[in-house]
Write a structure and sequence with these properties.
This protein is α+β, with helices and mostly antiparallel strands. It contains three helices and ten strands. The relative contact order is 0.19.
Length: 150
């Protein structure tokens, strides 16, 4: 009976599409290495985190379906996010680009009136086949680049 239970678990796990973390991250790093870096930007953090299937914020699986690799870069002083986004749009010409929506900032004046203003776009994403790249502004003079090869 014990062998049957073990065999059933092996069959169930092997059918769940278990992702090889080392191999997946290695392919993400290959994709990352193929991308240009904004001039003068210095990497300050690189990490790979698991992605899970979710619905309405609830995790649907115990095992990751993929991994995303993220690098945070320190930008040269005075660099605006818009310049970085323009750099990647030129560099990734031929990729499908999706520009994030600008945020709306609401401020309340001393008299209690609402004042609305649009902020800059804070992210731009690119896709080519199964590969994806997201460039996202981060607090301070920093930018984050997320990649997923799969």
């Amino acid at each position: 009976m014990g062998r049957v239970a073990v065999a059933a678990v092996v069959v169930l796990v092997s059918g769940c599409g278990v992702v090889d973390r080392a191999g997946y991250v290695r392919e993400n790093e290959r994709l990352l290495a193929s991308l240009p870096t904004y001039p003068g930007a210095q990497p300050i953090l690189q990490e790979s985190t698991p992605d899970y299937d979710t619905a309405d914020g609830e995790r649907l699986s115990l095992l990751p379906r993929a991994y995303t690799t993220r690098v945070i870069y320190r930008l040269p002083p005075g660099t605006r996010d818009a310049a970085v986004f323009a750099f990647y749009r030129r560099a990734l010409r031929g990729w499908h680009a999706h520009i994030g929506e600008p945020s709306v900032i609401v401020e309340v004046s001393k008299s209690g009136e609402f004042q609305f203003r649009r902020a800059e776009v804070d992210a731009i994403s690119f896709s080519r086949g199964s590969e994806s790249v997201v460039v996202n502004s981060v607090r301070g003079p920093r930018i984050a680049v997320f990649v997923d090869h799969g």
